[in-house]
Amino acid sequence: MNCGDIEQARRWLEAQGVRQVSDGVWAEGGVPAGTLTSSEVAHTWTNVALEERGRDAAARLRLAFGLLDLLGEYWVTCEIRAALKDNRDPLPAEAFWAGYRHRLEAPDEPEAVIYSLWVDWFEDPATAEAAFAEVVGHDLAEILDGTAPAGIAGGPLFRRARRVLCASGPVSWPVKYPVYRTAATFPELQPAVFRAILGSYHDFYGDLEPHSALALLRQLSMPSDTEHFTALCDALEAGHTSHYLSRRLAADAGPPEAVDQTVLSERHVRGGSHVATTVTAPSVWQEAIRRAGRVGLRRRPLALRA
What we know:
Layout: H1 3-15, E1 18-22, E2 25-28, E3 31-37, H2 38-50, H3 57-71, H4 74-84, H5 93-104, H6 111-122, H7 128-145, H8 156-165, H9 173-183, H10 190-202, H11 210-217, H12 229-237, H13 250-253, E4 266-270, E5 273-277, H14 283-294
Helix pairs in contact: 1-3, 2-3, 2-4, 3-4, 4-6, 5-7, 5-8, 7-8, 7-9, 8-10, 11-12
């Protein structure tokens, strides 16, 4: 989070006639009766900011990041991602990933950024590998090679690695497995590696190879009473690759809420069939589901947060 970017975004909104009344409440045109939610502000004004004339692509991206930090809305990340693909005047990809890394390292949980990585970048096979490398893969590899500072415990890189690992279920196993192995060499990241493997098993689009996943799990120094650890090992030892493909072991291997009880409640349609999951989720993601429904997007089961 960048305070300068936040204030720039606030001033920009005020210039458009939108001002903040209270936390999550905005007024447009100076009329208190016409209040807007942060979600409505994001839906109305993010695209306007990204297309504003008189700013170069880097300045527009900075303004959009300011709106993201100010509003905390997942929809802002959707607009930014679309603008990255705009062939007419694309946003600078290097600055975009630097912005994501910065927010993933912040002390406060960047929920919209984590959710964006999970459902937009990691679930898309065309972007998952590059996105995963940008937000964590390159850095852990450099640490292991001795080409980056070794300190990680409790610092910004630790926060970023932990958050990315716990959102990485949809990333293909060959891509993420070397990073998981590297992360497992740091005791402070081992709980995140466990949650990453658990998420890879429970995520609707998760991916893992059971035998190498099991071998990695057995290398972790987890407390003996770690919930779902033994049952997950049993499922992987039996050769099962997915909670959804192994319904007989679903109850034994633990529900998706095993990952800090962070999943979504919705009905998913794939190939004409319905898969129902009933769990709980933080309000920001429930709101993201509601908003996504307004624009025709579909959300899937979620197991993200450490």
